[in-house]
């Protein structure tokens, strides 16, 4: 009797596992899955702080705001070639701001000539320009601080990323300030690897835990996968050192190549709000990034699990102490094998789930 009961229950359990797998596979191709949902902004401390500072700046008198915009906007006089306003403190007038004269050579036109393009815009368009100019000022300030440091203390790679973004934002505010900056012109558009980290971990769960292994059931493995994916998307990558520019024959590109793209699409949108959307690292990066970052990510995750006050004790014990170490032990074995089936596209592992 016991054998009959177990045999009738087993298929339904596998059926549920296959259904979970099918849902994960089908959602893999949805473009919306590449980016964070809008509510990430409400839960991100850095985003909220930047937004609060920008709103405080907008409470200033209109003259200060318009002068800031004019500094990055070309003169609209038909014969003038001035590409950005320049105003000295002597001629700067935040009360009669429209009459302030641009001191750039060959211009000498009033400030109002530099902001004519936003005179009759909608509130949405006006807010877009404010965001753009605010982001430009932030990046410019960060670059100036970086340049003030000795070369040995600078990170040339991060500086080059911000310089590239700065140029795109300046070009946008000069030629089309009501359009979102096209940051794809810097490093190309995501995704940057053929199979992403999300699918790799799903493949891994199916390969090692499908059929409810004794060490970890398939359902538990999927929960750990979801936990790790969410954690990886929120994790700040390790800053590359000089060694990151070199790579072995096991990789097609250096770590620095992927780090630059991570900065532009996953990290900078937190502090520069004119750049949107923010992408999930697990959806636009794949095999090589996982192999580059897995060990450092897991070390940081362990520290976070034990030290963070956000996770309740039961949740921490269940995942970080029990499930995650088992999962990661098997994952390390799999990812060290360049021919492991976990690197395959969906459908090439066991065939599509039915």
TrEMBL record:
Residues 53-301 form the PCAF N-terminal domain. GO terms for biological process: regulation of DNA-templated transcription. It comes from the Eukaryota. GO terms for molecular function: histone acetyltransferase activity. GO terms for cellular component: nucleus. This is PCAF N-terminal domain-containing protein. It comes from Aphis glycines.
